[in-house]
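Render PROP1-like PPR domain-containing protein in 3D.
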Amino acid sequence: MLRAEAPAYCPIARPRWKLYACRNVLQETAVHGAKVKSYSHSERKNRKNEGAYIDKDGVARTFDRKKISRKRGGGMKGRGWKYGSGFIDGVFPVLSPMAQDILELVQKGTDVAKVWQSLDSIPHAHDLWDDIVNVAVQLRLNRQWEPIITVCEWILYRSSFRPDIICYNLLIDAYGRKRELSKAESIYMALLEAHCVPTEDTYALLLRAYCNAGQLHRAEGVISEMQENGIPPSATVYNAYLDGLLKARCTEKAVEVYQRMKKERCRTNTETYTLMINVYGKANQPMSSLKVFKEMNAIGCKPNICTYTALVNAFAREGLCEKAEEVFEEMQQAGHEPDVYAYNALMEAYSRAGFPQGASEIFSLMEHMGCEPDRASYNILVDAYGRAGLHQEAEAVFQELKQVGIRPTMKSHMLLLSAHAKSGNVSRCEEVMAQLHKSGLRPDTFALNAMLNAYGRAGRLDDMERLAAAMDGGAGAAPDIGTYNVLVNVYGRAGYLDRMEAAFRAAAARGLAADVVTWTSRIGAYARKKEYGRCLEVFEEMVDAGCYPDAGTAKVLLAACSDERQVQEVTAIVRSMHKDAKTLFTL
């Protein structure tokens, strides 16, 4: 076993971690070197699982359908829909010259009527249907929803072809992605009127469309309709439901659906557990994610690289880099070669833990192992340096991002802006904002919040208030609770308690619920004034509002104490809160 070892960056002594990057070459050579005159049963089975495609150089190649990677040419993050025989989401369909022409026509055409006229004029041939469907699938892989609608509605309303379930599913998917629920529903009704039998993918796509639009009660209606028609929801349907709930950040509902799956004895699979690991991870419950992972192994369900990456991400969000390392090593021992997503997750763990050099080492190691960093890799490294206050290093990584030919996105600029804001370099922040406008990008709420923070840290309250007023007036991106958190924190630190309370009330007036950061910043303002009684009053308001304290809240409360009696009182209150708090994330 070939190994590449690298020490983890950490100021304290702890075990080194190892990257098991290569497979046992001798073992593979021995297997492939065994020559027999006839194929055994297992060999015939393996050959049956092979698929074929033509690469960009015109060379015929094969792939194992059961081991499709997440790289270009493989299943996209391992979560693809299967559209009929031979169409695997993520594997680019082979387009004939005619299909290439149709694809170019549809992509460039802006007038639907003219595109339809051009499609009408195509000579009918025995392979025209395959070309049309290949084009539609290719457009879906490119996430081009409008052209998909153009092609599929031409099939549905204009052509002489009789649409099949693939056509209907693609239309439901496209309308669902565009959040045009009424049109997605009308396509479903047309499907039923055409006596076309909906598949589990049809129901799954409807579920995801409703979840993306926040229509959870209508998503439940899909499940009810299936059960009324005597169709028990399968793992595919429930997984689509969980995926939609995950993206909609409906954690409690996702846990409820997962419990229902187990109660109904629906056969869970690797994707189910991966989704639940992500659900708990995004809810900042990494130990619950680990519990799901252990439950998965206990029943003999084999995790894939997506599962391991999800678990690494769960620990990364909390900055638990040692636990993330353990999972990363276990992933390699299980025979999975780390891809860019896995490396990025481990980099994020170091970033959140405050070890930018550790993230940099992983970045270098990724390049050394032949895994090409993507835009997210550079963004994580910029964020790692920015969190540590190393704005020059963050700037250098941002410039390298552009040098390698990757176009910075809004998030790239926002992370750079945050790095300079933390160092108090307001002039550079303003330059980054100017670059954003020059690039044709409209600053989003996160970028504007970073600019607000820069002005606040520099004491330029007039500029901060002017920008906040512009956001509130609709001139730019709408403010969120993070916007008001900046205002509450800046005013509180400056001692302007009246302005701080006004900002707090303004957030409530906009219907934005205060989070733990809002409440803690507000308590901190009174703690600096040693107003112990007022701190307890705000703390009681926080609890009554259903927001539970974290370690930062306890630290701020203790800072308000001026004698031992108050310290004991605060300690007892915080302990009782955590003891009585009931978690929603039971398994």
